[in-house]
Amino acid sequence: MRKNVLRTVVVLISAAITVYAAHRIYQEHSEYREGADSYSVLENYIKEPQTEPMSEESKSEQDAMSENAITWPVVDFAALESINSDCVAWIRIDGTAIDYPVVQGNDNSFYLKHLFDGEWNGAGCIFLDSRVEPDLSDRRSVLYGHHMKNGTMFSDIAKYKDQAFYENHTTGMILTPTENYRIEFFAGYVAGADDETAWKVTFATENEYADWLNETVDRSWFKSEVIPTAEDRVITLSTCSYEFNNARFVLIGRLK
User: Fold this and answer.
1) Which of 10, 33, 52, 252 has the largest CB neighbor count within 10 A?
2) CA–CA distance, 241 with 250 (Å, rounded to integer)
3) Are 144 and 91 in contact (CB under 8 A)?
4) How many Cβ atoms from other residues are within 10 Å of residue 54's Cβ?
5) Model confidence pTM above 0.85
6) What is the rounded distance in angstroms from the CA atom of residue 80 to the CA atom of residue 148?
7) Strand partners, 101
8) 6 Cβ partners below 8 Å, 6+ apart?
9) Phi then psi dihedrals of residue 27, to 5 deg
């Protein structure tokens, strides 16, 4: 009799665990789908510039221009701000899935679990550290984004652990309502969430900032020809990594 009762209890517990696991999987996939759909709609607010057919003379003039010239997309910040007044920028890295609006909240918690439109969702939003200026005028700014299993948000940041990937994706761009910036990546490394150096945004002196830049380059998992100086402003892109508990991968580039 007792064996039958124990067997029944074990079956019921196993069934409950199976149902809970199935519910969690369904919920996770639903969140992924809702998040992807939400950001797919926002793609309508960034447009590639329209180009007119060029004459041979114009083509020659264009060829003579710097090879580093960038054709900037156009972001409708007015429309985005009408949806969410916290919108401060748009970030894009060609050749990756990173092509998102950026927000800045009153803290570094809200947008971990809320989409651009404010709806709760585990995908969250790409957001700027609440400690820095929204126009990226500080010496260092930090962006955060989740490492999603479906490859969205900042998942592709982790690919910079590979030298070959870096060499094929050395730059990105971040657009704001007032300025457009080229991001020239020069370092990326794994750090713990409690690593004060990795999240430092305030520097008392130029020498302290220069020392921090040198340490950043020394810690990098890839080698870059970009040499940052104390006159440069930099931006860090941060996402989860899995080398150890609470690991993060941070990708740093200078703003041009």
Assistant:
1) 252
2) 9
3) no
4) 11
5) no
6) 23
7) 90
8) none
9) -65, -40
Q: In angstroms, rounded to a whole number, what is the distance separating the alpha carbons of residues 108 and 110?
A: 6
Q: Residues 35, 27: contact at Cβ < 8 Å?
A: no
Q: Are 184 and 215 in contact (CB under 8 A)?
A: no
Per DSSP, the three-state class of 227 is coil
Specify the pLDDT at position 183.
98
Six token digits for residue 9: 């209890």
CB 196 within 8 Å of CB 137: no
The closest of 210, 143, 223 to 176, measured between CA atoms, is 143
Q: What percent of the chain has pLDDT over 90?
A: 74
Q: What are residue 153's DSSP bridge partners?
A: 147
Residue 101 · residue 126 · CB < 8 Å: yes
Percent of the chain with pLDDT over 70: 79
Angstrom distance (rounded) from CA 12 to CA 4: 12
Tokens of 180: 């457009």
Rg (CA), the chain: 22
Output the average pLDDT for the chain. 86
Q: Which residue has the tokens 């060029």?
A: 54
More confident residue, 71 or 110: 110
Residues in the chain: 256
Top pLDDT among 145 and 59 is at 145
Cα(63)–Cα(171) distance, rounded to whole angstroms? 21
* Three-state secondary-structure class, residue 46: strand
Neighbouring CB atoms inside 10 A of 75's CB total 20
CA distance 129 to 103: 9
User: What tokens does 99 get?
Assistant: 């092509």
